[in-house]
Design a protein that fits this description.
Pfam families: TetR_N (PF00440). This is Transcriptional regulator, TetR family. It comes from Thermoleophilum album. InterPro entries: Homeodomain-like_sf, HTH-type_TetR-like_transc_reg, HTH_TetR, Tet_transcr_reg_TetR-rel_C_sf. By secondary structure, the protein is mainly α. It folds into two domains: about 1-50, Arc Repressor Mutant, subunit A, CATH 1.10.10.60; about 55-190, Tetracycline Repressor, domain 2. It has nine helices and no strands. The protein has helices at about 10-25, 30-35, 40-45, 50-75, 80-95, 100-105, 125-140, 150-170, 175-190. Helix 1 (about 10-25) crosses helix 6 (about 100-105), helix 4 crosses helix 6 (about 100-105) and helix 7 packs across helix 8.
């Protein structure tokens, strides 16, 4: 296996600007190079591809997501309240990485999110925090009993991709998209008597 090309922060930022400005399909290496302030030849010499840049940006976004989830996992409070906070964080991370998510969504299969096989679930690094909070909420009685593994996949996709769609396609403000999405997701899971 060959070494991964070295990508600096300026190139990451340039790729993000190009994806945001042109979309994944129209963000050519020439446009990425221009946004990053380097030549196309420099990218070629480094062995950098548009797909490779997107994959590395997706990995960075995934790392940020995992780190951002930690406070919701370790906070005090009910499982339902902590789940709501985790879903708010999911929306915050979607907003912070909207350009990357839209570029990933433009591809036929955003493999970074999916396990392999039929009826695959979302990969565990994205869903494990939600699974834990679903279990905590069921244990403390603030959330309905559900299959935590399957429901975590549904929640990640329901909240994350609905938020991205409402922001990009409907051009809703971040707060409106977050509030509307979370209201449906969280209140649908709260146990009777703990709904807001």
């Amino acid at each position: 296996m060959g070494r991964r090309p070295i990508v600096d922060d300026a190139l990451y930022a340039g790729a993000r600007r190009a994806f945001a400005k042109y979309g994944f399909h129209e963000a050519t290496l020439e446009r990425i190079a221009e946004e990053a302030g380097v030549s196309r030849v420099t990218l070629h010499r480094r062995g950098i591809t548009k797909q490779g840049l997107l994959e590395q940006l997706a990995e960075r976004a995934a790392e940020q997501y995992r780190a951002a989830m930690w406070p919701a996992l370790t906070a005090s409070g009910s499982g339902a309240d902590r789940l709501e906070r985790a879903l708010e964080i999911l929306c915050e991370q979607a907003e912070a990485n909207l350009d990357v998510l839209l570029a990933l969504g433009a591809q036929a299969n955003a493999e970074v999110f999916h396990e392999e096989g039929d009826e695959a679930l979302t990969r565990a690094p994205f869903t494990e925090p939600l699974e834990r909070l679903l279990r905590d909420g069921a244990a403390d009685g603030t959330l309905r009993e559900v299959d935590p593994v399957e429901t975590a996949t549904v929640l990640f996709n329901l909240v994350g991709w609905a938020y991205v769609h409402l922001r990009a396609e409907h051009r809703w403000a971040p707060e409106r998209a977050r509030r509307a999405t979370l209201d449906v997701a969280v209140n649908g899971l709260r146990a009777a008597g703990s709904r807001r």
